[in-house]
Amino acid sequence: MLVQNKGNHSYQANGLTLVPGTNKVGEQEFEQFLAHPLMAHLEETGEFVYEKDKSKPSAKEVIAMIEDAFDIDMLKALKEDEDRKTVRDAIDKRIEELSNPEK
Is the pTM here over 0.70, yes or no? Predict the structure, then answer.
């Protein structure tokens, strides 16, 4: 699942670290992460954005997270699992931006 850390800091709890931006994490690991009282509080304040209802997020929501991603390997893995053209195009665009930052 994708989790967007909207903060300026990395957060670590129960064996999971979320860096600023978009992170790809396992659902069970994220549930354990949120079990920590501080992380639960940060989640309540909107520090973390993720698909809460277990349904497939809209293309618009996924693209917003992609635009905040900095891990090229995570983006490539996400692209393999994605079938929507608009999302795949956004992933390609973000990989290009990260690979060639001077353009």
Answer: yes
- 22 vs 39: CA distance, rounded Å: 16
pLDDT tens digit at each of 103 positions of the chain: 899 999 999 999 999 999 999 999 999 999 999 999 999 999 999 999 887 766 778 889 889 999 999 999 999 998 998 999 999 999 999 999 999 987 6
Cβ(62)–Cβ(87) below 8 Å: yes
Strands (E), the chain: 2-5, 11-13, 16-18, 21-24, 48-50
Quick one: tokens of 84?
């929507």
**Residue 20 DSSP one-character state:** S
CA dist 75 and 88 (Å) reads 10
Cβ 8 vs Cβ 58: under 8 Å: no
